[in-house]
Amino acid sequence: MALTLIFTLGEELYGLEIDAIQEIIEDPPLHYVPRAEGVLSGAINFHGQILAVIDLPSLLGFPGEERDHRQMVLTPEFKSLALTVSTIQRIVKLDLSALQPPPESSGNSAIRGVADLDEALVNLLDVDEVINQLENSYAE
Questions:
Q1: Which of 8, 25, 84, 97 has the most Cβ atoms closer than 10 angstroms to its Cβ?
Q2: Which CATH number covers residue 93?
């Protein structure tokens, strides 16, 4: 069992293991980044370190909508990025040994697998693939 933060992207449930998250921050001041476009929402000052804020729903192709006022700061292992999501919900224990493969129809390579939670399906986020997609979007 792994502690997992549950959040939404659009109408879908997603999860990310707590080990990948350094902190969840409330309403940080978002600073404008000149010539920033696409999925880069801006930057925040996080304990004296400047972090890029990535709009995860936009990166993964979800339609524009409201974003949670909180942001997830990833650990330095994952480039110390801040992610915005549609809504942050709660922390649960998920059995990651029972992950099912992502559905072929999803077309989203950022899903590591699917877990059952209270009769709902949770897409487990693959942070390495998210970073890869982010790097590829800015390499073009």
A1: 84
A2: 2.40.50.180
115 alpha-carbon distance from chain centroid = 17
Domain around 20: 2-139
Q: What is the pLDDT of residues 106-133, one digit of tens each?
A: 567 899 999 988 888 999 999 999 999 8
- The model carries a pTM of 0.89
Domain count, the chain: 1
Rounded CA gap, 27 and 9, in Å?
19
Rounding to the nearest 10 degrees, give the CA dihedral for residues 39, 42, 46, 51: 50
The per-residue pLDDT for range 28-84, each reduced to its tens digit, is 999 998 877 778 999 999 999 999 999 999 998 887 778 999 999 999 998 889 999
